[in-house]
Amino acid sequence: MSSYVFSVTSPKDYESTIPMVTEALKQEGFGVLTTIDVAATLKAKLGIERKPYIILGACNPTFAHQAMEAEPDIGALLPCNVVVRTEPDDSVSVVFMDPVSVLGMVNQPGVDKVGHEVREKLMRVAESVRG
């Protein structure tokens, strides 16, 4: 695992994991602003078959506002992406952007504070998914 993400294995199949993750995000105050079906896009644009892989662009409006107040350009690093993907062994991984690592690139105390608070929420989402 890299330093800019953390992940868990879902106890459910791919199709059941997506709404489970979405609901867990909602419980922590996040909405899903974007949904990118990477597998479908690669198939349509390049003819490449790959196992299911989706990117959910999660946003907590309160924290996004705080971060934008501290650093107006922070939008380039938002939203917090959450990947749901099927692994070669057909298990399902849920991979979370680590906001402390990503937002830490800004090196601004107000943004760092938001990153730590968002990480705590996303870690609770991860634990909820893990079951």
UniProtKB/TrEMBL annotation:
Record field: transmembrane: none
Gene3D superfamilies xrefs: TT1751-like domain (3.30.310.70)
Domain spans labelled DUF302: 36-99
Pfam families: DUF302
Name of the featured protein: DUF302 domain-containing protein
Annotated source species: Halothiobacillus neapolitanus (strain ATCC 23641 / DSM 15147 / CIP 104769 / NCIMB 8539 / c2)
